[in-house]
Amino acid sequence: MALLAGYTGIVHCDGYTVYKQLADPQRDGGPATLAFCWTHWRRGFVEIDEGGPAPIAHEALERIAALYAIENRIRGRSADERRAIRQMQTRPLVEALKTWLENRLAAVSDKSTIAEVIRYGFNHWPGLVRFLDDGRIEMDTNSVERAMRPIALNRRNSLFAGHDQGAGQLGLHGFADRNGKAARHRLQTVPC
């Protein structure tokens, strides 16, 4: 959290409790704005749906898929265009999803897994719907996580390289993998 000390912009994140400290109005420098990830919430419905017949989870996934279909169509457009389309097309679907989930929640046991998943979304609702009002915000953190995955994997692999030269070589090859064929060819001629 020290990295974000004084930062008051948008933090796109999962529902990890520590992030909520960033939104504290009493925080030095002021609060950050949290935008929560739909994929993290969606995963709970997926796990239930994969476990066997689960009509509520299945329908929730279909409704969320409709939101992602809109996002796929507007990807690459300006923030203003994305916001306008989200207001017209996505917001009504999100509002209908919330109402539908509220009705389902009232009909299931409070201790059921589906109730826990629904409540997780409701507990993070302001951050989940933040993307509707700001075209700069993505619906999920998938692109960031995909970008970080090779770095984290390379870091882990470097731990097992055995010595400095091996770790350096592994790091350079990871760089080459991310930067194309020309970089890989160049590395073959550079001693490590």
Describe this structure in words.
Helix content is 62%, strand content 4%. It is mostly helical. The chain folds into 2 domains: 8-140, no CATH class; 144-188, no CATH class. Helix 1 runs antiparallel to helix 2 and helix 2 (55-74) packs antiparallel against helix 3 (79-107). The protein is globular.
Total number of domains: 2
Q: Note poorly predicted spans.
A: none
**Strand order of the biggest β-sheet:** 1-2
Give the biggest beta sheet.
Answer: 2 strands, parallel
Helical segment tally?
Answer: 8
Note the main attributes of this structure:
single chain; mainly alpha; 2 domains; globular
Summarize it.
This protein has helices spanning 38-50, 55-74, 79-107, 113-123, 125-128, 142-159, 164-179, 181-188, and strands at residues 10-13, 33-36.
Write the layout of secondary structure elements.
Layout: E1 10-13, E2 33-36, H1 38-50, H2 55-74, H3 79-107, H4 113-123, H5 125-128, H6 142-159, H7 164-179, H8 181-188
Parallel strand pairs: 1-2
Helix pairs in contact: 1-2, 1-4, 2-3, 3-4, 6-7, 7-8
